[in-house]
Fold Alpha/beta hydrolase.
Amino acid sequence: MDILLIGGLWLNGSVWGRVASALEPLGHRPMPLTLPGQGDGSASATLDDQLATVLAAVDAAPGKPMVVGHSAACTLAWLAADRRPERLAKVALIGGFPTADGQPYADFFEVRDDVMPFPGWGAFEGPDADDLDDGARRAWEAAAIPVPAGVAKGVVRLADERRFGVPVVVVCPEFTPAQAQEWINAGDVPELARAEHVDFADIDSGHWPMVTQPAELARILAAAANAA
């Protein structure tokens, strides 16, 4: 199966390198995506531009792909389910949940000079980053790409209720499946509360398992794809 890999804020497609290498021997075709404004040199990219890149990859897949979103990009993966519900085999959400209709995509941190730079590790103290040593943190910061304001502040628009029929797997790194289910049951994740098929997979990592647990993440994604 084609597996489209979408990194979260500040990341380009190269972050999936070791996951992709581990997925191929498991019988799948990984396709890491570099998004407009996050690796192509464009500081004026918008959320619509990023979604267009994802949809182009979905449309180019020979069969039904699984779309994987990490962190904020969980919303991009879910937007793909909204725009192409009949074309997707499954959506995998790593370390995040879809933003609701009408809400900003990722207006989480300060925007300066029309971009949202990486805010530093203070914003991720605790389980998010405990598994990243100093070297990994320095490498991560050096590669971080400021996110265009047009992406971070873009408004999410969801319209096709067929998205709720697309199977979902929530990969839980810095939180547990039980916590994720609790948040969904409490109404904190309204999109997944209405989804018809939601599974959970636990992974012992911080917020960036593609960096610290790439082989295990690949195994989880392959299992999810095989079950689609």
Notes: The chain is about 35% helix and 15% strand. The longest strand covers residues 2-6. The first helix runs from residue 17 to 23. Residues 130 and 206 are 6 Å apart (CA to CA).
